[in-house]
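[job 0412] stage=complex_fold ligand=adenosine-5'-diphosphate status=START
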Amino acid sequence: MIKAPNIILVGPMGAGKTTIGRLLSHSLGREFYDSDRIIEENAGADIPWIFEKEGEDGFRKRETHALECMLHNQDCVVLATGGGIVMREENRELLSNSDALVVYLYASVSQQLHRTSKSNHRPLLQTSDPKATLNALFKVRDPLYREVATLVVETDSRHPKSVANKALEAIKRHLKSENKAQNANVNG
Ligand SMILES: Nc1ncnc2c1ncn2[C@@H]1O[C@H](COP(=O)(O)OP(=O)(O)O)[C@@H](O)[C@H]1O
Ligand SMILES: O=C(O)C1=C[C@@H](OP(=O)(O)O)[C@@H](O)[C@H](O)C1
Ligand SMILES: [Mg+2]
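[job 0412] stage=complex_fold status=DONE, emitting C-alpha cells
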C-alpha cells in the first residue's frame, strides 16, 4: 500500500489519462475520477454539447469548478484531467499549490493523433487538420504540463498496462526519495 495524496494525471488529448488513470486506481485500490465525466454529470450533457452551447470558455469555467471541488473534497484518489486543464493560470495555481502528485503523461503528436482518431467526442479536433491543431496545442501546453508536474511518464510505444506500471514505479520512487529527504531534515 502506498501512501500518497491525490494523484492527478495531466497531458494532451490521447496521452491516455483516462485509460491509465483507471488502471492506476485499480492497482492502488483507490477511487477513480475524470474531470470530463464530472463536468458532464454536473451539466447533464456531454462535452460536444457544452462546447456548442457555451463555447470553450463555458467549458473551461466548468472545468475549473470541477478541479476546485475535487481538490477541496477528495483525498487519496486518482484524477484524470482533460488536456486543456493547464490553460487557465488559476488551474495551474490550484494544481501547484495542492499537495497532489501531478503526473504528466507524455505522448508525441503522432501518437496523440493516432489515439484520438477513433473518437469524434473531442470538439477541438473536429477540424480539417487535427494534426496541425495538436501540434499548435502541444507547443503551448507542453511547457505548462511540465510547470505543474512532479513526474513525467513517457507513453509512446507502450501498452496501457505497461504505462500504468511505469507510472506506479515512478510514483513509488518519488515518494521514497521524498521520505528520505524528510527523514534527513528531521535527523540532520
Ligand atoms: N499507451 C497506449 N497505447 C495505445 N493506446 C492507448 C494508450 N493509452 C491510451 N490508449 C488509447 O487511446 C485512446 C485515448 O485514450 P484516453 O485514455 O481517452 O486519453 P486521454 O484521456 O488522455 O485523452 C483510447 O482509445 C485508449 O484506449
Ligand atoms: O485538450 C483539451 O482542451 C480537451 C481535452 C479533452 O479531454 P481529454 O484530454 O481526456 O481528451 C476534453 O477535456 C475536452 O475535449 C477539451
Ligand atoms: Mg480523457
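The mean pLDDT is 95.
[job 0412] exit 0
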